[in-house]
Amino acid sequence: MRKEIRGLIAAVCLFFLFGTLQAQVLENYNPRIVISEKYDLLPSPVMAAVDLDLETYPLASFQLVFPAETAVFLDNTLWFYASADTSFVLPLKRLKEISPVDSQSGTLPLRAYKEGIDKSQLSVKKGVFRKGKSVDSSIDTPSEQLRKKDPVKDFLIVALVVVLSLIALFKVTYPVIFQSALRPVTMFAEELSEGGSGIKTFSSDVIFYLLVFSMLMSLFTFSCLHFAGISLLDDYLVGGLNSLLLVWLSGTAFFMVLSFMKYLWIKFFAVVYQLDKVDFSQFFYLVRILMMVLLVMFIVLMGFYLQGYTKMDEMVEFALGLFLLVYLAGIFRLFYLMLKKVPFKSYHLFSYLCSSELVPFLVIVKLIVG
């Protein structure tokens, strides 16, 4: 009985020992991986490089892991293009057959090109591995995969040109209103004029202005969703430029309706607090601030995007934080300006602004943060 138990224990130990030996890492190249960056506005990682030693452990294999959309080169020669996350095991002898080794150093340079590549996405190890599929050395990578067209970039460029053209048209059509609506100096005026400096409530010039504002708001929202990697609009990317334009115009209509609802919200509380003469001035003042901030932020985002900056999600977080900060500063600035015009005390005014402005602001913060 004891002999049987000992034999069983020995068999189990040999099984685990065999399994360990069959998955033994001899050399870990991950700490040796060097990330190269390109420098435009900000540094962006574009290439990972490591030299493989093909002289030691001739019977070993390489376990290689690459992220999606990575072009892999061996000694400046394209090996394959990983259209999806790729992991495989390749014998060292097979790798020697695919690409010659430097006779002096006995190493083979491995290069992986991908925008925003990171060490955590790669893995290069030499050892004895039980599992893993091999890769064909004669993979012919289609050129369209290496030069994949980005429909979002084309759409954002077209949309930005359209918005800037409409702003230029607004300046030509309504030059007087343009001076008060799109000049940054007007945000620091010491008085909140009644009627929005001669602008009538929902006249043609105001509707034109709100249209441009809604288009810019929709464009900024779309770009934030895309840069942040939120897959809410991925189904529309397949349709190309026409599909993206339809999404943009639909978002414009949504924000246009939302703007009218915001004014009605302010109008309701203005009637309750008997402030009928400042409701539109209050509404248009914040729209002017947000319009100018959105325009500047979107142009900056596009500048980084066109330069190939890879950490656009961090830029989106910064832009959204700046947007909310300016929005909140505009509310406090509005409180300061309205103190000179309202007939009642400051805590009544604060109560009014909490109802008409801070509640919608907190809803926006909840939607962004949540």
Automatic annotation (TrEMBL):
Keywords: Membrane, Transmembrane, Transmembrane helix. InterPro entries: DUF4271. It comes from the Bacteria. The chain crosses the membrane at residues 155-177, 206-233, 245-265, 285-306, 318-337. The keyword Transport does not apply. The keyword Transmembrane applies. This is DUF4271 domain-containing protein. It comes from Echinicola strongylocentroti. The lineage of its organism: Bacteria, Pseudomonadati, Bacteroidota, Cytophagia, Cytophagales.
